[in-house]
Structure prediction request, 360 residues.
Amino acid sequence: MRDDGEKTSQRKIEHIMIAKRDDIDLSARSSWFEHVRLVHNPLPDASFEDVDLSFEFLGYDLSAPLMIEGMTGGHEAATPINRALAGAASDAGVAIGVGSQRAALSDESLRETYSVVREAASNVPVIANLGISHIIGEDGPDNAKRAVEMIDADALAVHLNPLQEIIQPEGWVNFSGSLTAIGDVVRELDVPVIVKEVGSGISREAASILTEMGVGIIDVAGQGGTSWSLIEGERSPEGSVRREASRRFADWGIPTPLAIMEVSSLDVLVIGSGGVRSGLDAAKCLALGARMAGAARPFFVRAVEEGEDGVKDELNKFIFEMRLATFLTGSLTVDQLRLTKKYLLTGPLKILADERHIFI
Ligand SMILES: Cc1cc2nc3c(=O)[nH]c(=O)nc-3n(C[C@H](O)[C@H](O)[C@H](O)COP(=O)(O)O)c2cc1C
Prediction:
């Protein structure tokens, strides 16, 4: 949406309060990762210590191909959350994004709620963030440049969120000009543009159009985790049109494992996210074809409840499980895990993959 900074800031604090609630996370019911099985190798001919998850991303050497997805900023309550997330990302050697920087484009006093991320994480990639609606129109390229400069970012993530915007009471519903805007920003920025969703996924068809516009990194942010339909629906009165639609469309979208398979059939770096709740889920993303995995809510909840130590603990658990799953499939590197495709699909995911003509 495009409104003034004060309203945006108020919305940010409401999002923080609602996103903490477990009932907006679809993964408690199904993240779809339960329909992906990695094939066990009982005969590893190497030491567990030899597993090497290191990965180069945006010119940085990461300890694992993992990202804390863009979440917050734009309200003073976001500063300690962002500082905790960034401190832990820096310590673990993984990438980190900030939340939509719209609020700080119109209110300079909010810049620090985002720039705290770069200050606490100088050794890892930091990703700027704007919604598609903020780059449409003649100010678009300038907004994009200002967002990148604000946090000295290594890339800009542009989020696509039509479901969220339409359920949002004050949402922006005119997406005309999206493609031109993405093309313009790709051309005018000095850093790469990542296009992401926020929990409804990106299809092969959409990804194909994006790659034609010059986008080289796609973060699928598929269905199966945080539901922005439910979060925005909570902000409308019970019984209202938007509240009821938000529940009907709670699990709308492309399940993350399917989106990864679809988009990784193209020549583009894929980040698998949306409902990734463990290092095992992250390893499944890589086996399905993603080059990196990302998660938002698991790190958000630990940051809000326990601060930086909680996020560090969560990242440690993620990375240990990623290493374990890599080793147990008979791989020692992330490339081996991805290229050997040691996975099986079951249940509804298998049916969807067949329907979408994905051949393993
Ligand atoms: C509290 C919170 C705030 C978020 N804010 C943004 C945002 O400003 N921009 C964005 O691109 N995505 C935002 N997201 C979406 C995440 O980046 C991610 O795509 C989505 O939550 C799915 O991942 P998850 O299931 O691991 O939470 C937010 C997510 C959470 C939990």
About this structure: The domain at 5-355 is CATH 3.20.20.70 (TIM Barrel). The chain has a mean pLDDT of 96. DSSP finds 16 helices and twelve strands in the chain. The pocket of flavin mononucleotide is lined by residues 15, 19, 69-72, 99-100, 129, 157, 159, 196, 198-199, 221, 225-226, 273-276, 295-297, 300 (CB under 6 Å).
